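User: Sequence for Sugar ABC transporter ATP-binding protein below. Tokens please.
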Amino acid sequence: MAAKPLLELRGIDKSFGPVRVLHDVSLSVYPGEVTALVGDNGAGKSTLVKCISGIYPIDAGTVTFEGREVAVHSPRDAAELGIEVVYQDLALCDNLDIVQNMFLGREIRRGIALDEPAMERLAGETLASLSVRSVNSLRQLVSSLSGGERQTVAIAKAVLWNSRIVILDEPTAALGVAQTTHVLELVRRLADNGLSVVLISHNMNDVFAVADRIAALYLGRTAAQVRASDVTHAQVVELITIGRSGNLGLPPEAPNDFADLLPGAPR
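Assistant: Structure tokens for Sugar ABC transporter ATP-binding protein:
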């Protein structure tokens, strides 16, 4: 397990007018690990991700990247840090092929012309580095791909740009069993390749299949962040539904897991 987080958020607040959506939220994301971000609808997961990715400005709190405090004012700022987000809608164009989608808005040019061979080579290398073998041709239209293959292309698109952190928003929500297994294997492979992965999911089976750590939000607050091996499904469900778990504890030698945020701890 990594000793220091790559990305750390402390005391994050976010309001929209009189509605306070995030209250003193903390989150740590470690290199080479999958951190599952869980919580019920309205818990603040999407808002937190949009704060991380620069879509929403934070009202209070600090964001540190590699130990230094940073300001993320826009998606461009997040991308320069190496933070990429794959949203549920995937942001893919059905009428374009795989290569065109992966380089959309970031095309490589040679003079005034697109450098198609370079883009095709880099797209192929990225998919190969993720051990993706289910795609028949890089020139397939995205409209011809299965749900799992589309998710794979969206993830590969995020990885292509030297990303350090990949945030995945419910990547298996609309997939069948076989495709879910494929995507989860890909998620695990990203972390094993050294990337930090934040997995947003309502599916506890998916979470426990790939996550190293679990961060639970409850009504806009951090209920706990714990190692997945230290908790059960039932304990995580309690954190999601009531914001605490009566029998949840952490070993005292694990200060990075927010033991101070556990129920019953002094605040």
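Helices lie at 45-52, 75-81, 98-102, 116-129, 147-160, 177-192, 204-210, 233-242.
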